[in-house]
Amino acid sequence: MTKPKEPIDELIHFQRNFNQVIGHDFAKRALEIAASGEHYLLMDGPPGCGKSLLAETFPSILPPLSKEAQLEKISVYQLAGAPYDSLTLPSYRHPHHSASSVSIIGGGTNPKPGEVSLAHRGVLFLDELGEFSKKTLDMLRQPMENEKVTISRVHSIVTYPAKFIFIAAMNPCPCGYWGSSNHYCTCSEKQIRAYKSRVSGPILDRIDILLSLKPVNLKEHKFSGIESSEEVKKRVIAARERQYARYGKEVCNGSVSFEQLSSSSPLTRLQQQNLQSLSSAQGFSNRVQIKIIRLARTIADLKGDDIISNEAIEEALLLRKLSLRSIQSFQKKSLRGENHNVHYQ
Q: Is the pTM of this model over 0.70?
């Protein structure tokens, strides 16, 4: 077995920082929520709008790994015979879209962990998501759902851990400029539909946060007084500590069982009715409804609230790209019944 290289802790000092990102306040808020609850996130937008920069900055707001997580990380890297940068920092894996399914998922003649396992307890960032093969994306469904990957061979079956925060980015079309106000899109409707269909419905269902980004006009933003990663990380750590205390173990809202989530943080009957009504109108699956509740619980944790407020649910709906009209409808229904709220057990 190849011995992994010693960690290079000096790389810690060369991380990107949130104070280097101009604008994108809503996107930075979404990343903070994703880091706090270990939620999956997909960004789309034209080339140069800041998708990769935001993804590369994301690890700077993640808490250091616990002793247990460090042991799990080093075990996976030893199995793969791969070097790691730091033992205390979460891994950040960024495979190219030309990478094979085996290198990303794992396997081979002599099975080894792939990128999804090397990202265990860290971040898996897939840039240009629409350029990955459909086979590879469909194979991601198991680790995204079960936090592990099982590889079957004739003489053996191996299972590797794959608990990661999934971050992805993609252009809105093959040329990248569909919907842009500055560039002309050269793609046909058929090309756009084929491009978007590469990311299947089951994959989108497993993603918590959907963001659409636009280029930032630097003339409209200040270059000073921007919040640093250190300030954001303090809130992320505080939110995670609330979750660990609530669930009695090192698990976040994004992956805790729904039974435990709903028993510790039940919605009111009215909140549940309004969310179900809105989800039915939008065609949301049960999985998406649950993800909205998970997001709302994380938003409440960031605020230090013990219960899930209507405001937390409304912000969670925004993170699913719902129209303002749909969210206003939820608000009106909530206000009409706010004096009749009864906790739904």
A: yes
Taking only the tens place, the pLDDT of each residue in 22-47 is: 888 999 999 999 999 999 999 999 88
Q: How many CB atoms neighbour CB 68 within 10 A?
A: 10
Q: Which residue has the tokens 């979460």?
A: 90
Per-residue model confidence (pLDDT) at position 333: 66
- pLDDT digits 0-9 by tens, 159-200: 999 999 999 999 988 888 887 777 888 899 898 888 888 888
Give the 3-state DSSP-derived string for the chain, with helices as H, strands as E and coil as C. CCCCCCCCHHHHHHCCCHHHCCCCHHHHHHHHHHHHHCCCEEEECCCCCCHHHHHHHHHHHCCCCCHHHHHHHHHHHHHHCCCCCCCCCCCEECCCCCCCHHHHHEECCCCEECHHHHCCCCEEEECCHHHCCHHHHHHCHHHHHHCEEEEECCCCEEEEECCCEEEEEECCCCCCCCCCCCCCCCCCHHHHHHHHCCCCHHHHHCCCEEEECCCCCHHHCCCCCCCCHHHHHHHHHHHHHHHHHHHCCCCCCCCCCHHHHHHHCCCEHHHHHHHHHHHHHHCCCHHHHHHHHHHHHHHHHHHCCCCCCHHHHHHHHHCCCCCHHHHHHHHHHHHHCHHHCCECC
Question: Which residue in this structure is represented by tokens 């469909």?
Answer: 138
Instruction: Say which residues have a Cβ less than 8 Å from residue 222's Cβ, sequence separation at least 6.
Output: none
With beta carbons less than 8 A apart as the criterion, state whether 170 and 207 touch: no
pLDDT of residue 14: 46
Specify the amino acid at residue 252.
C
**C-alpha pair distances (Å), 234 with each of 142, 240, 302:** 32, 10, 10
**Of residues 52, 50, 46, the one with CA closest to residue 26:** 50
Give the residues across from 160 on adjacent strands.
149
Ranges under pLDDT 70 in the chain: 1-14, 220-224, 322-345
Q: What are phi and psi of 215, to 5 degrees?
A: -60, 145
- What is the C-alpha separation between 107 and 145, in angstroms, rounded? 19
pLDDT at 48: 86
